[in-house]
Q: What sequence folds into this?
């Protein structure tokens, strides 16, 4: 019997709308295996030849009723020295990875007409993020905790909504700004966890950090690809997109080595520092005027 052929856009939409986080994570891994032709259990093939379904505007992806979503400023801060503090950290990371699955799936679902390598890259990212979520889910369970136990914020998907009109803007602001932030904060967090003797969590975070370097590189590569297609100066486009409130996501110090490894160049790193400084000055001036 010939395998069933389904289009990748329908398949990615199904995963994107799945509300169960564990099931979504498993679906993201399955999609990548199917796309690569390495899934022996499910007699399906994925194709990008029949993606004629309507692209939906998603106010939100499929997600469980919990965690309760609140403003980022309303989230309690807990020290890592306590078990409760480490649970809060792992829960926060699980929420980030859950949203990262959605963002990678949405990059496939929403931005059609891209090369097959683009689809492969973002399905691989979705699969990685699914694995990260499952590792964190299991770690929470080992601490008698669960995903949804604590409140979280909607900042990552808010950026998805703001960038759903253009693949260039999505590549510029999600992988290169939001995901790249993880490259800066992960190493000191890993060191802190090891100092506290929590090697299990530190090992998971090390895995995430290593993978995120490759994920940011994917974003950098496709940002440059689209700029080249449109005959645009990537550095100028990046600067224009960082003007104003988007620079609020920039926070030094930056992990220069990891960012270079992930495909940034020296000019872009200097630009990021410049835009952060300009934003801080503008914010300070507004505060004085108020």
A:
């Amino acid at each position: 019997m010939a395998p069933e052929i389904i289009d990748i856009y329908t398949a990615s939409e199904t995963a994107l709308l799945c509300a169960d986080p564990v099931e979504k994570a498993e679906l993201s891994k399955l999609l990548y295996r199917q796309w690569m032709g390495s899934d022996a259990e499910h007699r399906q093939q994925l194709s990008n030849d029949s993606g004629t379904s309507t692209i939906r505007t998603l106010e939100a992806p499929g997600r469980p009723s919990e965690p309760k979503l609140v403003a980022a400023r309303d989230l309690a801060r807990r020290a890592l020295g306590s078990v409760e503090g480490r649970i809060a950290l792992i829960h926060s990371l699980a929420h980030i990875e859950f949203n990262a699955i959605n963002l990678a799936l949405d990059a496939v679902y929403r931005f059609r007409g891209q090369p097959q390598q683009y689809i492969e890259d973002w399905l691989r990212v979705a699969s990685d993020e699914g694995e990260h979520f499952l590792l964190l889910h299991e770690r929470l369970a080992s601490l008698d905790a669960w995903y949804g136990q604590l409140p979280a914020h909607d900042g990552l998907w808010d950026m998805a909504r703001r960038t759903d009109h253009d693949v260039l803007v999505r590549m510029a602001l999600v992988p290169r700004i939001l995901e790249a932030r993880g490259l800066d904060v992960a190493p000191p967090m890993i060191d802190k966890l090891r100092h506290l003797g929590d090697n299990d969590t530190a090992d998971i975070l090390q895995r995430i950090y290593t993978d995120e370097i490759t994920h940011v590189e994917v974003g950098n590569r496709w940002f440059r690809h689209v700029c080249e297609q449109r005959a645009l100066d990537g550095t100028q486009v990046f600067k224009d997109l960082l003007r104003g409130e988007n620079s609020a996501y920039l926070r030094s110090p930056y992990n220069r080595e990891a960012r270079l490894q992930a495909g940034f160049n020296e000019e872009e790193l200097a630009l990021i520092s410049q835009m952060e400084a300009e934003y801080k000055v503008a914010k300070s001036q507004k505060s004085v005027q108020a």
Remarks:
- The longest helix spans residues 199-229.
- The domain at 4-48+70-289 is CATH 1.20.1260.10 (Ferritin).
